[in-house]
Amino acid sequence: MFKRTKVTDGTATGQGPDAENWDGKEVGFRKKSKVPGVMITQYIEKLPEGKSHPDFTRKPIALTIQEGKFAFFKAIVTGDPKPTVVWSRNNGDVSDPARYQSKYDPNSNEHTFEMPHVKPDQADTYKCFAKNEYGQAMVTVVLNVIEVGFKMTKAPQQQAEVANCNFKKVLKRRSKVVPKAEEPEKKEGEIDPKFWELLMSADKKDYERICAEFGVTDFRWMLKKLNEMKREREEEQAEFVKNLSDLKPIHINADGTASFELEFDLLDPSSSIYLYKDGEMIPYTKELGDKMKHCLRKVGRKYIFSMRDLMPEDAGFYQLDVEDVNMFSTDFKMVDFLVKIQEVKAMEREDAVFECVISAPLSKLMWFGKNMPLEQGDKYDIEVSEDKLIHRLVVKDCMVVDKGIYAACAGIKSCNAWLVVEADKGAPKGKKTARKTTRAGGSGTDLQKVAQEQQQILDKEREERKEKIKAAREAAAEAAAAEEPEKTADSGAGKDKGAAVKVERIDKTSVAATTTVAGDSGSGHSAGKASGGAKQDGSHADAGGGHSAGKASGGARKDGSIADAGGGHSAGKASGGAKQDGSHADAGGGHSAGKASGGAKQDGSPADAGGGHSAGKASGGAKQDGSHADAGGGHSAGKASGGAKQDGSHADAGGGHSAGKASGGAKQDGSHADAGGGHSAGKASGGAKQDGSHADAGGGHSAGKASGGAKQDGSHADAGGGHSAGKASGGAKQDGSHADAGGGHSAGKASGGAKQDGSHADAGGGHSAEEASGGSRQDGSLADAGGHSAGKASGGAKQDGSLADAGEPGITSGLSDIHAIRGQPAELTVKMNTDCDGAWFKDGEPLKSGGGISITKDANIHKLTIHSCRDTDSGLLRFVSGDLSTEGRITVGDVPEFDEDDLHKFSKPVIVRVGQNAAFKMPFQPQESLTVSWFKDGTELKDGGGVKIVREPNHSRLLLRDCLRSDSGEIKIQLKNPFGAVEATSQLIVLDRPGPPEGPVETVETTSSVIEIKWNPPKDDGGSAVTNYIIERQERGHSLWTKLGDVSAEKTSFRDRNVTHGKKYSYRIYAENPQGLSDSLETADSIMAGIMILSGPPGKPKVVSTSKTCINLTWTPPEDDKGVPIIGYQVEKRKKDTNQWLALNAINEPIEDVNYAVKDVTEGAEYEFRVSAINESGAGDASPPSAMACAKNPNMRPCFKDPEDFLVVRAGNSVRVKISYEAEPPPHITWLKDDEPIAPWINVINTEGMSQLVIPSSKRSDSAIYTIKAKNSVGEAFFDVEVRVTDEPKCPGPVELEQTVYGKVAVSWVPSPDQELDDRLYYVVSQHDSNTRMWKTVADRLFANTYTAHNILPGIEYHFRVYAKNDMGLSDPSQSPTWGANSNRVPISSNGVSSMEISFERPPSILVPLKVHTPPKGYQLYMTCAVRGCPTPNVSWYLNNTCINSDKNYYITNSCGVCSMYILRVRENDGGEYRVVAVNSLGKAECSTKLTVRD
Predict the structure, then answer these.
(1) How far apart are CA 805 and CA 883, in angstroms?
(2) ∠1207-1210-1215 over CA atoms, to 5°?
(3) How confident is the model at residue 211, as a pLDDT?
(4) Is 914 exposed, middle or buried (0-12, 13-18, 19+ CB in 10 A)?
(5) SS3 state at 536
(6) In the prediction, which pLDDT does 181 show?
(7) Is 1231 helix (H, G, I), strand (E, B) or coil?
(8) Cβ distance 1262 to 1218 under 8 Å?
(9) Cβ contacts of 1234-1241, under 8 Å, gap ≥ 24
(10) Residue 247: what pLDDT?
């Protein structure tokens, strides 16, 4: 009895469904789902009838996918009422519709959870909940996302993670081996990191080979360092796995896949396993089977990595990591065949040799013979040279059965050749010849020379690597020796030492490290170049600090100031400015990835250029006094330039995380000029000032260009503030007024108007996406153009506020709608009939040249050119000239694109066999107005018939059903939108048998011993090259075709040397490729060996006998056969009074004997005959004609043919007596019964050659002797047939037993009533005793009514049965009384006391059932079981529901309830289900088992 446990859904906050709809606290009963991994909670104990809780019939599958791809999960749920499905994730929510979309398809009942453009932060464990009012079902699924490349924006995020002590997210999963695209430039002599990784995973026997491959000769040093690295690695591995063993390097399998394997136990089953190729993570699958190239599956403790569809680019360095620790590394190399194996022709019992040379040493090749792998043994020798470049296969003691195709495989490269074994014609028939000591075959080239040349190339490459390593070590030793005195000489602090000394060393990871001495240039783990600046005093110059990967240069100073150039983790170049005094010049600070340059100063003011994590260029302005000039601060990714100052004012250029260019304005006084602040991604330029006013240009996170206006007084000019993504330009002012140009997050261009007084001019404020231009004014009024405008507003040029109108020209060629490609130029042209001015507007706003737009006018042609189209350029363009206007819409977009990986996969040919389906799939990014078309050989394919086209939002599929050979060709997919089209092509190759060779077959030569034929190759090779041709021959007059042999595809001729002079032969040729044999090309006529020789005429035919249906002939052979054996004769006939001779047999069906029975005759007609002898050349001269013979029977006395003289019929059935006879003329037939005429109800049916007597319903009285009498003019004949009509006899009378002598009992019975009627009746006696409990026949064919039973023992009960038997069968038995124990017992009275009668009867039961057996084929089998029941049950054996009791293949016994079945030799068809059925009057019992026959 199981307990029901009430459970509460313990879903944590943020992991389950929303609290509004899913409270997660309902009490229920836990249920088990049929689908593994599904948790079901039922809210009530008993469900109403017809209702059910939710369950999953298909659960989501775990997914590993590349970043940016389309990820989705699918699930199918059931339940009544219909459940509601909600998705969630463990760490985060799924409420963002742009990233997560839940869909439901009512047709397929599928719930889909989609994540377009999946990101790494979406990798998590997801949950799917299905709920209705009766319960809830929940399942989890894991999404793994493979990151692509390195994202610069992750640096601040990683810092935040470190600050929060969340180190797990900071660690980036990368291989110890750097990808080729990211690995630094190797220095001469550097050891590849792969060397150590391979050694740690290799066997000791492979150490020497790996060292030789990488050019390492110092084995002592290698072993010492390897042991240290192994100890460190084992400590790291022990944190995640245990029992790491059985490491097997990558190898090619027989099925064309490559795999490597290892065994270990994970300490934490949830630990992640990663695969790398050349340092880059590769996706793999555990559940999708053949849908992905790479697969990692687990079998017990063993992990097996495999990949299919091998290509040359699959060669590389593979690693398997658990979390961040490497477990196994292996190198997958591709080798090529320099010399391939060649065809070998060997004599029977001779050795055949295949040999080849490969391009790189390999310890073992895979050899195949007739598609079966070959191993070293008694039949095959596999030899490898010492340099492992030459490989040989020796097929010993060749026999005819050994011929076929043999192949050598090295990775994905292979070569094959034929072995042709010719029979030894000189060998005596029936005897086996002695084995030959010669060898046949070989490549025919000097393999040793080819191998030596290749070895020299490999040795040269190895020596070059050794020299580089040696030179690097010597240089490192010299540098280390020179370093000690340098450090001693520089022990005093504050002394200028000039240039730095660099020492290069090779560390354990073979990455060059640079250490700088004297003036400090590049501190930390710098991988680039750090150079300290030159100083004239005792100041300290630092250039490039932190983990700089670029170049940091300190500025030059004349005094004791400190000049710093490039601080932090700079990846670019930091340059300090030049100073003349003790001021402080900083150039490039923080983690700058660009170039930071400090400005020049003449006084002691500090000049800073490029601070923070700048990725661009920061340049400090030039100063003449002690002012402070800063250029490019923060994490700038662009260029920041400080303005020039003449006084002590402060000029800042490019602050914050600017990604563009920030330039400070020029100042003549102490005013403050700032250019480009914040995280600007564009260019910020400060205006020029003549006084102490403040000019700011480009502030905030500007992504465009901000330019400050020019000022003559102390007014404040700001140009481009906030997060501007366009260009902001301040107007020019002559007074102290304030001019702002482009504020806020402007994405366009803002230009301030020109003012002459202190008025305020604003041009383009807010989030304008285009250009706002202020009008020109002469007074202090305000001119605004823009705001949040998306078009263009332009004021005319006037001296006051009025608008200037132009003339009214005519437009001959106007605008139209166009589609422009993003990043490409676009041009719009308007043609007027006269030369006049016009204006351009975009979405209502005026346009002017600048900001990527050029407006030109050439006479009466007006052009608007967009140099590089952006999304913001989309809109309605309008050209206005006077009262006339024309407009057109421009839409900017991209031409559809394919992913490079998808394009590479699609370009691979699809190869199918005839009758199979071909499928093509092409993913693409979802787009609007996208048209997808499929083409085959330039013809567009439509959906229907054998073509199925499926279009999904993110991919399209093409299915071609039941491909034919004619379907081969180019398959092309085209994506088209209004901006253009892109195409991808693939090839469909449908493999089939080749077509028949081209005829006709030409006879090149025919002699008495040779026939040579020639043909042409087939027009269609079936998609794969023809490997060989098979030739068969048929001798004329025979129906059997014999295979003569085969020739290679290069030869299209064959010489048949096994011919007999004068014989004719037909030939047929088949072409063969890997798909099978073609139809045959057959010779039109037979080809004779030599010239034609015909035989002489036979003797004159003689008529032996005639009948109305046959005339028998005989003749003598020809006297002159011309020396050519006669193979038979041809007989011809001619009817009297006609001149035409008709052949009775064809030439190719000769009559081999010298006699023939002509059956094609007409009764009463006369014929004459002639005979011709046939040899290999044909039929010779005809013999003289025979005498005329008439087709009629000769007179003959009647005779009977094989009659039966005795017939037994069951009473009531009909009697049919058939007698065949021969007589001429036809006889008169008479039937008699016991010499008396037959009764009228007996029918007699006479036909030609047969007479039949029929009694419709026979009785016992019809038993008699029937006589047939046939009489004609020649004589008469008689024949007697005994007919016995009988029935199954009646049982004998009562049986009596009497003992006359001890041990003998006389059995007597009353005769059967049929004894007098049937003289063939006899008796059968059966005996039964209580000891054996079986009936056995003790007497048979008794014609008396008594029988004496012997060996009657006391204490045993005996029973006897007597049967009557005749020709119809047995009667029912007569039962005897019991004889023996207790037969004469005196009954004991109960004296009035009643007793209960006990019954031992019971239905059958199985005491010991049958057992399962799995014997090998040909072995014996003994199967038993035990049965009990009373009365004794009848036991039957069944095999697959067929009774086998009477089957002689099974020996079946039943001894006291032990039922046995014995099979002497088990056959394949003996396997199946065996069943034993025991039945008695009270019931039935049975048991069964299965028998499996092993090979």
Answers:
(1) 9
(2) 55
(3) 82
(4) middle
(5) coil
(6) 52
(7) strand
(8) no
(9) 1234/1264, 1234/1265, 1235/1267, 1238/1266
(10) 83
Helices 219-237 and 193-201: angle between axes, nearest 10 degrees? 70
Give pLDDT tens digits for 926-973. 887 889 999 999 899 988 888 999 988 889 999 999 999 888 899 999
> Which pair of tokens denotes residue 432?
């086996």
Question: According to the model, what pLDDT value does residue 1082 have?
Answer: 92
The one-character DSSP state at 830 is E
Q: How far apart are CA 1068 and CA 1268, in angstroms?
A: 62
Mean pLDDT for the chain overall:
74
Residue 664, pLDDT > 50, answer no
Strands (E), 109-152: 110-115, 124-132, 135-146
Say what angle helices 207-214 and 447-489 make with each other, to 10 degrees.
70
Are residues 1204 and 1248 in contact, defined by beta-carbon separation less than 8 angstroms? no
Cα separation values, 52 from 5, 39, 136, Å? 19, 15, 10
Using pLDDT thresholds of 50, 70 and 90, give the confidence band for residue 25: very low
Cα separation, 274 vs 608, whole angstroms: 46
* Structure-token pair, residue 1345: 């009514």
Determine the Cα–Cα distance for residues 1169 and 1114; give it in Å rounded to an integer.
10
Rounded to an integer, the average pLDDT of 532-541 is 37
Rounded CA-CA distance 739/783 in Å is 11
Query: With 90 as the cut, is the pLDDT of residue 185 above it?
Result: no
Q: How confident is the model at residue 465 (pLDDT cuts 50, 70, 90)?
A: low
Q: What is the pLDDT of residues 359-393, one digit of tens each?
A: 888 878 888 887 788 888 888 999 988 888 889 99
Helix (H) or strand (E) holding 1366: strand 1358-1366
Give the pLDDT mean for 338-366: 87
Give the C-alpha separation, 387 to 1221, whole Å: 92
| Least confident interval from 137-151, 724-738, 808-822, 912-926 | 724-738
Token pair for 52: 């059910």
Alpha carbons 37 and 138: distance in angstroms, whole number = 9
Give the integer Cα–Cα distance in Å for 25 and 874: 54
Q: Is the pTM of this model over 0.85?
A: no
Three state DSSP letters for 553-583: ECCCECCCCCEEECCCCCCCEEECCCECCCC
Residues 732 and 713 sit within 8 Å (Cβ to Cβ): no
Please give the full DSSP string across 28-74, using - where no structure is assigned.
EEEEE-SSTT-EEEESSSSPPTT-EEEEEEE----EEEETTS-EEEE
